[in-house]
Amino acid sequence: MDLLRTLCQIAAPAGNEAPMTEFLLNYIAQQQSSWRVQPQVLAGEEFQDCIILVFGKPRTAVFAHMDSIGFTVRYGQELVRIGGPRAETGYKLVGHDAQGDIACTLTVDKQTGELGYEFTRPIARGTELTFQCDFRETETTVQSCYLDNRLGVWNALRLAETLEDGILVFSCWEEHGGGSVAYLAKYIYENYGVRQALISDITWVTEGVHPGQGVVISLRDSLIPRRSYVERIRRIAEQAGIAHQLEVEGSGGSDAKELQHGAQPWDWCFIGAPEDHVHSPDELVDKRDISSMVALYQELLREL
C-alpha cells in the first residue's frame, strides 16, 4: 500500500497530469528490470501527458486515467469545480502558486451554493486546489482522497509486474470530459491492431454493489458495451473462481465513452473495485475487492 499512498499524495487534477506522468515514468524506469517482460514505453509530446506501455504481442489494452477531480481558483475567492468533487464547508484543500504553498479551507455558500476558500491571503487566479491527502489503512480497508483513480493506476502497475502480452494506457482528462483516449485508441489500433479494452477504474458502492464482495464487472452505465464481449469476461471470472459482482447503472461513464464513440471497432468493459464516499476526501475501499481486481485483470490479460 506504500505505492498507493504515494500515488494518492500526488496532485494531478484533470488538465495538469504532468506531475503524475513524471512520477510514473521514473517509477517505470526504476522497476521495469524486475518485471517479467520489459515494455516499450511510449511517451512525449505526441501523446501529451499520456503514457502507453506495450508488452510482447498485445491482444488487450487496459486504460487507467491518471487525473483527479479538484478545484480552480476563479476571481476573488471563488472556486470552480474540476470534474465532480463533493463540496462541503471545512474540507481541507492544498495547492501552490507563485507566492508559495497553500493549505486552505473550502467554503460553500448555504444560499447560493457558490464555492470559495478561506486562506490568509488571496490565491492567484487559475491555481488548482486538490483535497489534502489523509491516507488511512486498516487490516481490511484503505481510505483516502483520489482512490478514484489512483487505485486503477496502481492496479495497472501491479499488472505490469507479470504481464507478458498486453498494453497499459495511462490517460488524461477523464474526470473533466475526457479527450485523450480518442487519439490513444486510434494510435493503438493502427499500430498494434488491438481492439479489446478493459477500463481500470473505480466504481461506486450502491444498493446493489457492496464492499467486500469482489471486484465489479459493469454490464452498463450511461453506455452499453457489446454483450458478447462482457459475457466472455464473465465466463473467465467464473471459471477462475474470482469473487466478483455485476453492476447495472443508467448513468455515469469512463474512458470507455471515447472508445465507443470512436471510429475504430473497440470492445470494452469497465472492471473495478467499488468505493464508498465517492469524490470526497474520504473515499473508502475494501482490500478484498482490491485483491480480486488485481487477480481478475491478471486472468483476463492471459485469457482474452
Automatic annotation (TrEMBL):
<dbReference type="Pfam" id="PF05343">
    <property type="entry name" value="Peptidase_M42"/>
</dbReference>
<dbReference type="InterPro" id="IPR051464">
    <property type="entry name" value="Peptidase_M42_aminopept"/>
</dbReference>
<keyword id="KW-0378">Hydrolase</keyword>
<dbReference type="InterPro" id="IPR008007">
    <property type="entry name" value="Peptidase_M42"/>
</dbReference>
<keyword id="KW-0479">Metal-binding</keyword>
<protein>
    <submittedName>
        <fullName>M20/M25/M40 family metallo-hydrolase</fullName>
    </submittedName>
</protein>
